[in-house]
Known about the structure:
mainly alpha
Amino acid sequence: xxxxxxxxxxxxxxxxxxxxxxxxxxxxxxxxxxxxxxxxxxxxxxxxxxxxxxxxxxxxxxxxxxxxxxxxxxxxxxxxxxxxxxxxxxxxxxxxxxxxxxxxxxxxxxxxxxxxxxxxxxxxxxxxxxxxxxxxxxxxxxxxxxxxxxxxxxxxxxxxxxxxxxxxxxxxxxxxxxxxxxxxxxxxxxxxxxxxxxxxxxxxxxxxxxxxxxxxxxxxxxxxxxxxxxxxxxxxxxxxxxxxxxxxxxxxxxxxxxxxxxxxxxxxxxxxxxxxxxxxxxxxxxxxxxxxxxxxxxxxxxxxxxxxxxxxxxxxxxxxxxxxxxxxxxxxxxxxxxxxxxxxxxxxxxxxxxxxxxxxxxxxxxxxxxxxxxxxxxxxxxxxxxxxxxxxxxxxxxxxxxxxxxxxxxxxxxxxx
Length: 417
């Protein structure tokens, strides 16, 4: 048993490191590793057995553990168990039950969200400043408009910020807090616009449209939907027209659509799309060779290298990533692993059933990860995967405890009868 004063100090330290972790997600991979490591240790020390007992009764918490366990067992039949893209990429799944069992309250969860948005806001200011002042001191940027990490990470974080701030604006407006609603709405629009200004990717467009659709579904009445959609559409079009990079990407996307639909026999798909199709076709062939349990954890890169030696690809060297999360797991641990992945996503969707702010944020996180995983192995990636696991754990724990608290009086009433 930990003494009360020691537990209180540890829980306070856990709360502070959780805020630091949320702030580090969009900014620094090394900073995230340090703060997340400290947070994980403190969470393990302070999680109560009763919270673990309740958490592990949820499919949303069990399925990530089952996926990790299967990937760990998959090292037994792998010819390269420590290969890239293997076990280390799925350890983060264990964060989901851990954070769910940590029992953050609503106020603490909001503070974590504010830290994440504040971090993204710093990046947004730098990104927009570099666009407004191209000759400025931006030589240290990773790419134009992207101060840190890469565009995929930046657009992922910005899309969630835009969605969350839009929810906040709607809620504040309904409560009569018009100034707060205006600030949140303007920030949401700026985050949304930056996604289109910097680098217009197919995945980014799909996710932005899907999250916008999810938001509209949750807004009652066509007038509210129109008020939201019209300015967003204007901003997206204006941002695209102002960005030469976005216009170039639109041409590429149009070429891909025509080529893949057979409408344009002269132009083939662009390198980005063609390479993904090549990765997917090879991945499907690998899965057919070992459909049930796969080739073993860590085997992906060596399998691609074998195919590269037999039939050289025009799209560069072999990588341990088929650019699709289902394929990434199925190659290593078969369709059994793929089925567990789908079961996990479904359980998380069901967990966030409802119209509360936390439930809707959870829906957005899962929706974004599922769509992003069609074109990238998002769970395997450091930032996107960690963001998903921490967000699902935090929001899932809040939603699950809210449901439990609501059901408690009903159970007591039924017991008296």
